[in-house]
């Protein structure tokens, strides 16, 4: 069995597993790594098929979650950004007795818009899938640019995300398309409504991929969870506002009862 890239940093007694988003890898966490390492023992993971976790084929959400779980520490806090939020959520749902808590960052239990549910139009995600085969590099860069739009540091943040991709091996088109298919089709709303673990949902007010209306809808539907809206952030709040991000995360973790 191929090993995932899995880097453990720090010696704090509490474990925090951090899962990146679509197209990227664990290098996205470098801006907050030092800030967090004094609070947690960090586990930085490249998801199967991404970055240094090569080679893996295209996989379903359930298969990705199962593979990541095989290397996981016991009783960790799981944090997932964007697509990684779905993976972390799947793990928390499948192993609630062995997870300390769940944090989703700029993520949604259902990324596709549907009726009165806000999200990305399914045809937009389908178009990205088709465009990947035609112009791989341009399509990935376009998707990354959407993640930073609206913030004061949008251009700088987009450069950071682009460098994260260019510094590591690129995922294959099949792996990227499988990730887009997960974003287009998965719906964890019903299952997560029953989750009894400590659960923080962190959003960017300016996020163009995960509309802020989702936060208020889930506040009503999931009163047992906690949400924070970062007013000046978009889809990558840990890059644009690292200090605020770390403060929100450490405040939450201090109250979950490890």
Throw out a few tags for this protein.
43% helix, 7-stranded mixed beta sheet, 15% strand, alpha/beta, 258 residues
Description:
The structure is a single chain. The chain is an alpha/beta fold and about 260 residues long. It is built from eleven helices and seven strands. The chain has helices at about 30-35, 60-70, 85-95, 120-135, 135-150, 155-165, 175-185, 190, 215-220, 235-240, 240-255, and strands at about 5-10, 15-20, 40-45, 75-80, 100-105, 200-205, 225-230. Strands 1-3-2-4-5-6-7 form a seven-stranded mixed sheet. Helix 2 crosses helix 3, helix 4 packs antiparallel against helix 7 and helix 5 runs antiparallel to helix 6. The two termini are about 30 Å apart. The model has no long low-confidence stretch (mean pLDDT about 95).
**Radius of gyration over all CA atoms, rounded:** 17 Å
- Helix and strand run: EEHEHEHEHHHHHEHEHH
Shape: globular
Q: If helices are DSSP runs of H or I spanning 4 or more residues, what is the number of helices?
A: 11
């Amino acid at each position: 069995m191929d090993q995932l890239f899995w880097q453990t940093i720090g010696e704090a007694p509490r474990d925090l597993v951090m899962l990146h988003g679509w197209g990227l890898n664990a290098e996205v966490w470098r801006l907050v790594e030092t800030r967090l390492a004094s609070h947690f023992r960090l586990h930085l993971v490249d998801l199967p098929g991404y970055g240094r976790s090569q080679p893996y084929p295209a996989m379903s959400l359930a298969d990705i979650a199962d593979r990541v779980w095989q290397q996981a520490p016991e009783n960790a806090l799981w944090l997932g950004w964007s697509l990684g939020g779905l993976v972390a959520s799947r793990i928390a749902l499948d192993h609630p007795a062995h997870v300390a808590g769940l944090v989703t960052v700029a993520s949604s239990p259902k990324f596709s818009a549907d009726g009165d549910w806000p999200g990305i139009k399914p045809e937009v995600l389908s178009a990205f899938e088709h465009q990947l085969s035609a112009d791989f590099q341009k399509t990935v860069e376009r998707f990354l640019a959407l993640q930073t739009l609206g913030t004061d540091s949008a251009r700088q943040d987009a450069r950071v995300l682009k460098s994260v991709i260019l510094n590591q091996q690129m995922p294959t088109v099949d792996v990227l398309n499988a990730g887009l298919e997960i974003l287009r089709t998965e719906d964890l709303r019903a299952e997560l409504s029953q989750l009894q673990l400590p659960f923080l949902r962190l959003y960017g007010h300016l996020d163009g991929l995960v509309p802020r209306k989702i936060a208020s809808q889930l506040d009503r539907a999931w009163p047992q969870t906690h949400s924070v809206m970062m007013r000046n952030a978009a889809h990558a709040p840990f890059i644009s506002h690292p200090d605020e991000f770390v403060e929100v995360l450490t405040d939450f973790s201090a109250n979950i009862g490890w």
